[in-house]
Amino acid sequence: MFSCSQANNQLAELVTLDDRDTGDVFILSGLYPTEGSRSDKWRWGTGQTSSLYFYMDKPGIVIISGTFENPHTGQTVRFSLNGKELVTLSNLPKNEDKAAPLTFNMEGMANQGRNILEISYSHWTGNTGSTSTDTRNFSVKYRKLTITTR
User: Fold this and answer.
1) How far is CA 87 from CA 101, 104, 119, in A?
2) Neighbour count for residue 70 (Cβ, 10 Å)
3) What is the pLDDT of residues 94-131, one digit of tens each?
4) In the chain, which ranges are continuous DSSP H helix?
5) Integer CA distances (angstroms), 119 to 4, 5, 48, 139, in order
6) Backbone phi and psi for residue 129, each to the nearest 5 degrees, phi listed first
7) pLDDT of res. 91
8) CA-CA distances (angstroms) from residue 81 to 41, 78, 147?
9) For residues 95 and 83, what is the distance between their CA atoms, to the nearest angstrom?
10) Beta bridge partners of 12
11) Sign of the alpha-carbon torsion through 70, 31, 13, 107
12) What confidence tier does 74 reach under pLDDT thresholds 50, 70, 90?
């Protein structure tokens, strides 16, 4: 179980992890396994929602940060922690440039015990009329997704 005395207070950096749940953050749904090469990794958020959970030994502030590329014009991405909306990024431009991904950084109050982070998307390839031959429901392409404590 995560303790705030853990080195650098990092719960997880999800994009750079292997395909399995590691450390103290676990994927419930909505994230494909890590893809790419050793020097160029990403993980797709999929469908309408990506859900993650983590445990805290005591209540505290967590920082959720990262970068992503967005393949859909007009995308809205909403971050919620334990049902409370933290941030909504609305009407995002299409951006598939890994050199200039969209950046996010927010704080939220985590409870003692189990916490659920939900990231919801307005657009994914299954609901936008995409002509891609890849049938997976891509929402955003995470280059980095990190949860730490303050």
Assistant:
1) 18, 9, 10
2) 23
3) 988 777 889 999 999 999 989 999 999 999 987 766 65
4) none
5) 24, 27, 8, 10
6) 75, 25
7) 95
8) 26, 10, 12
9) 28
10) 147
11) positive
12) very high
Q: Are 5 and 33 in contact (CB under 8 A)?
A: no
Residue type, position 60, single letter = G
The Cα-based distances of 6 to 2, 55, 71, 150 in angstroms read 7, 13, 36, 12
How far lies 33's CA from each of 81, 102, 141, in Å?
22, 21, 12
| pLDDT single digits (tens) 81-96 | 999 999 999 999 998 8
Half-sphere exposure of 87 (CA within 13 A, CB side): 11
State the CB neighbour count (10 A cutoff) for residue 66.
18
Q: For residues 105 and 65, is the Cβ–Cβ distance under 8 A?
A: yes
Residue 65, both tokens: 């940060």
Instruction: Domains for the chain: give ranges and CATH numbers.
Output: 7-149 (2.60.120.260)
